[in-house]
Amino acid sequence: MSPQEVPSADQLETFPNQHGDRDYTIEIVCPEFTSICPKTGQPDFGTITFTYVPDRLCVELKSLKLYLQRYRNQGIFYEYVVNRLLDDFVGACRPRQCKVVGAFTARGGITTKVTCVYEAT
Prior knowledge:
Layout: E1 14-16, E2 26-36, E3 43-53, E4 57-59, H1 61-69, H2 78-93, E5 97-107, E6 110-119
Antiparallel strand pairs: 1-4, 2-3, 3-5, 5-6
């Protein structure tokens, strides 16, 4: 796999928050997330939802989409990927608050939802 295909936090672009003087919530829903189960090699599908209160920066949506697409061929567990998504998102835009939820489709009759939360101190 070439380095261009590996997800990296520095792929996430930002722009200045024009309303940084107030708290407001942005919710971004990404219903077409795919990765690979590292145990079976089978594709995993899910919806990733980012809910955040921006501080000085907001995330640019096209860069987020392209970043998420790079997980398509990554062998990664649900729990790990959602934590990594939170870490990369927070690293890129330093929000006041952020929650990332990964709701993955059923496999063997079991669905999984992983939620990670960040609060600035």
